[in-house]
Structure prediction request, 70 residues.
Amino acid sequence: MSKVVCPVCDAAFEVDKDELCLFNRLRCEECEALLEVIDEDPVRLEWIEEDDDLDEEEDLDEEEEEDDYI
Prediction:
């Protein structure tokens, strides 16, 4: 386990070392921000803005696919 610091809320939390691979995403335990590993040595995390519109578009695409089979 390694301790990392959230760049959003400055909370320190533990993460498995295998989760600290470059471009891996994880959530802050304190503020639930989506974070991405941007550097491995030393470990640096960056906040990733979540786009709720993407989720809606994915849902629409799934509905359209279902309609194609009817």
The chain has a mean pLDDT of 84.
